[in-house]
Amino acid sequence: MNNEVWFRPFVWIDYRLAVLFTVIIPIILLIWAFVQKAEAIQRLLMIYWRVASLLAITIYLMIGGFGVSFISGLMARVLIPISLWFWVDLNDEIEYQANGPLKLLFTSWRWATTVYCILGALASIPFVVCAFSETAIATPYCRVWLEAPLLFKEYFHPNSKPAFLGFLGIIGLIIYVLYLSYFVLVKLGKQGRSASPQ
Q1: Closest Cα partner for 130 from 122, 120, 140?
Q2: Is residue 79 a contact partner of residue 58, using CB atoms and an 8 Å limit?
Q3: End-to-end CA distance of the chain, in Å?
Q4: Torsion of CA 81, 169, 47, 32, to 10 degrees
Q5: Does a structural domain hold residue 186?
Q6: Is the Cα torsion angle 69, 150, 12, 137 positive or negative in sign?
Q7: Is residue 196 one of the residues assigned to a domain?
Q8: What is the Cα 171 distance to its own chain's centre?
Q9: Nearest-CA neighbor of 109 among 171, 41, 59, 58?
């Protein structure tokens, strides 16, 4: 469809890396952490999943063709590394945990995901323009980013209309922004960089 877009293969590589780093590996790590009763890793991964849910919201916004998805996608890439390193108490607990395969894989994943998200955020900045113009989002330059979400729709929601799925994305985004605002304005002042409530 958008064969004239030279960076199309890189967009698809990015989506594949996103599935690997932000879905598959953290699911494996979370199950492993529960089995080994590694509480600090469990807690950090639960925080990660709450923050990373913005990526899932972004997919549904893209299915609906909403330009705001380009901003939510950028914000997800910014917030995920912050969520992985922000908590002083969890960082200390993980640091002093006995060395083993779980800790090694978790630490490797945390660094790899941080680098991936930072590079992805920088690469997505030129596409923020897609968020502010219906004319822009209709161009191959922007629409190439919607191809993978639309394929996702065909696999997992074949009988749903894109407008309905986009509406679900909007609802999810509103809830996410409200929760994030509550955390920043209320909870952060109370508990600081501790993941445990004071």
Answers
A1: 140
A2: no
A3: 54
A4: -100
A5: yes
A6: negative
A7: no
A8: 17
A9: 41
> Is residue 197 one of the residues assigned to a domain?
no
Number of domains in the chain: 1
Cβ contact 26:109 at 8 Å: yes
pLDDT tens, N- to C-terminus, the chain (198 residues): 445 789 999 999 999 999 999 999 999 999 999 999 999 999 999 999 999 999 999 999 999 999 999 999 999 999 999 999 999 999 999 998 888 999 999 999 999 999 999 999 999 999 999 999 888 888 999 999 999 999 999 999 999 999 999 999 999 999 999 999 999 999 888 888 887 755
Q: How many residues does the chain have?
A: 198
Spacing of C-alpha 152 from chain mean position = 16
The letter for the amino acid at 35 is V
Note whether residue 170 is domain-resident: yes
Global pTM reads 0.92
**Strand, helix or coil for residue 68:** helix
Q: What is the SS3 assignment for 66?
A: coil
Residue 104 structural domain: 8-191
Give, to the nearest 10 degrees, the angle between helix 39-63 and helix 162-182: 140
The tally of CA atoms less than 13 A away on the side-chain side of residue 189 is 5
Q: Are 33 and 41 in contact (CB under 8 A)?
A: yes
